[in-house]
Amino acid sequence: MSDLVTEEMMVSMGPQHPSTHGVLRLMLTLDGEIVKEAVPHIGYLHRCFEKHAENLTYPQIIPYTDRLDYMASMNNNLGFCVGVERLMGLEVPQRAEYLRVLVAELNRIASHQISLGSYGLDMGAFTPFLYVFRDREIILDIFEELCGARLTYNYVRIGGVARDASPALLDRIEEFVDYFEPWIDKYNNLFTYNKIFIERTANVGVMSKGMAINYGVTGPNLRGSGFQWDLRRDDPYSIYDRFDFNIPVGNGEFGTVGDSWNRYRVRLWEMEESVKIIRQVLNQIPEGPIMAQMRGAIRPPEGEIYARTETPRGELGFYIVSDGSPKPTRVKVRSPCFTVMSVFRELSRGCMIADLMAILGSFDIVLGEIDR
């Protein structure tokens, strides 16, 4: 009896597939249900951010940073403003720094909620999606009261923030964290210890610590591989060095360190740490101005700067070149989503088709930041 001979099949997944988390196309080479190769094709959402930045003044660029990672717009605003302020040698008022950390950590929670909810849908769980979106709505209501927007905020400005937070709003934020903190345990019951979820994600898409470092992976994806690195602690910016919080890493509780389950788990842990930081901000926030004193157009001196901050998806870097005019000569973005997609091809070899969605969902990518 002769051996069974199979032929490879080429399948295009996306760019309209709901589980590719945006307009991402995966070109699959399949041997039955086994993935022999998965090549990502990007560029369907390219908006020319970096070229636009050369033709805009520094304040005008901030709304464009909202559109990079639109799930964490506050963090994108902050990263760009930190770079410009360092180039200018500008000191930000203390109250503004506290408000920046406050909105950045609220946005980190909201972003991770999107990640958890959409990942649950990818794995076949619908109910958790409703819970996380219900809780995320509270954060969006807070942001709407603070700056008038619910997705793209343009709140963090060069030298401070756009508007102050009233005592009533700060009380409302405290009420939210009091309500939300117990719900993290309920998320654990829905996701973390769910037998089906564990079987779909544990030991799937294992990325070793060395592989993550070699590919330049950052954020929860790096920490899921067991490497404890977070810019908020290891290269502090703003006032993060004033707060006490832990850096969660993958522990391999239900599988191998660096698998899809551990990448998910790190994000859930990080919401707990964000709650800790928010409580400390609310206890320490001082009175005072929310904007630095500046006159005329913003004109950083001639020079260049690279500034990096820790967004919900990892290390976001802005390389800015100034010629002393109100418009930058060059703005280059270092995207954590772009770098993590470079490892996807290697992790997907030999897995099942269904595992592709487990791996891709665990990366928590946003195509607006990949394509820029």
Description of the molecule:
48% of the residues lie in helices and 13% in strands. It has 372 residues and is of the alpha+beta class. The protein has one domain (9-371): Cytochrome-c3 Hydrogenase, chain B, CATH 1.10.645. The strands form three sheets. The protein has a three-stranded antiparallel β-sheet. A three-stranded antiparallel β-sheet has the order 6-7-8. A hairpin with a 2-residue loop joins strand 2 (25-31) and strand 3. It is globular. The mean pLDDT is 93.
Topology:
Blueprint lengths: L8 E5 L11 E7 L2 E8 L7 H5 L4 H9 L6 H16 L5 H29 L4 H21 L8 E2 L2 E2 L5 H26 L2 H7 L7 H6 L4 H5 L7 H4 L25 H25 L18 E9 L2 E9 L7 E5 L1 H6 L2 H5 L4 H11 L3 H5 L1
Antiparallel strand pairs: 1-2, 2-3, 4-5, 6-7, 7-8
Helix pairs in contact: 2-3, 3-4, 4-5, 4-11, 4-14, 5-6, 6-11, 11-14
Please sum up the structure shown.
This protein has 372 residues and is of the alpha+beta class. Helix content is 48%, strand content 13%. It has a single domain (9-371), classed as Cytochrome-c3 Hydrogenase, chain B (Orthogonal Bundle), CATH 1.10.645.
From the structure above, extract its key features.
13% strand; Cytochrome-c3 Hydrogenase, chain B; 372 residues; three-stranded antiparallel sheet; alpha+beta; 8 strands
